[in-house]
C-alpha cells in the first residue's frame, strides 16, 4: 500500500511533474520502512513457534526484506541530495524500478512454495482462513491504513514547510541576511 | 485475564514490539513537524518571511 503510493507519486513526478508528487513520495518512505520492519518483526515472532525458526530465506520473507532495503535506500538517497527537485526525478526512477518487487512479494508464496502457505486471503474461492482470524486481520489492516494516511498528510505538510524554510534561509543568505 | 495459550510469550512480545515501533513513528512524525514549525518561527522572528506573508501583515 505505502509503496503503491510511492510508485504513483513517482509517476506524478516523472509524467505530470506535479510539485506535490515528490513531497508525497519522500514523506511516505520512512512510514513504509517502519511498517515493513514491524511486519518482519511480528512475522519472525510468529515464525518461531509455527516453523521453529525466527528467520528462513523463504520467498515471502526475503522479498519483504528486499522491500525494507529499498525503503532504506530511497531514504538514504533523499538525504544524499541537496537539490530536492533533481533528487525527486532520480528517486522516482529508482522507486519505479523497485516497484517490480511488489508483485514478487504478492506471488512469492505461489511461485516458491517453501515455508509460507499459499495465498489465503485474496483467492479465487474467497478467504481460506477462519473468521476469528480474518476479522481482526482486516480490522488491523484498516487501522494501519488509516494511520498511514494520517501520518502521511502530517509528514507531507512538514516537508512542504521544511522546503519553505530552506528556501527562505537560502534567500536570506544571498541577500546577506537582510529580509 | 485472557488465556493466550502456549504461545503467550510470542503474542505479548509481538504487541510490545509493534506498540513501541508505532508509537516511535508517531512521536518522530510529531517531533519533526514541531521542529520545522519552530525553524520557520525562528526565521519569521528574524524578519525572514515570504513576500506574500509580508504583504498580508502589512509589515
Structure report:
- The complex is a heterodimer of chains A (179) and B (59).
- With 179 residues, chain A is an all-alpha fold.
- Chain A has 6 helices and no strands.
- In chain A, α1 (2-16) packs across α4 and α2 packs antiparallel against α3 (59-80).
- The relative contact order of chain A is 0.13.
- Chain B contains 2 helices and no strands.
- Chain B has helices at 8-45, 51-57.
- Chain B is rod-shaped, with a radius of gyration of 23 Å.
- The chains are: A mainly alpha (179), B mainly alpha (59).
- The A-B interface holds A 30-31, 34, 37-38, 41-42, 45-46, 48-49, 147, 151, 154-155, 157-158, 161-162, 164-165, 168-169, 171-172, 177, 179 and B 6-7, 10, 13-14, 17-18, 21-22, 24-26, 28-30, 32-33, 36-37, 39-40, 43, 46-50, 54.
Main sheet record of chain B? none
Domains of chain A, number: 1
Tally of DSSP helical segments of chain A: 6
Radius of gyration of chain A from CA coordinates: 20 Å
Total helical elements of chain B: 2
Low-confidence stretches of chain B: none
| Largest contact between chains | A-B, 27 and 28 residues
DSSP, total strands of chain A: 0
Q: Give helix and strand order of chain A, one letter per element, not per position.
A: HHHHHH
Give the CA-based shape of chain A: elongated
Helix content of chain B: over 70%
Tell me the Rg of chain B in angstroms.
23 Å
Biggest sheet record of chain A: none
- Structural class of chain B, please? mainly alpha
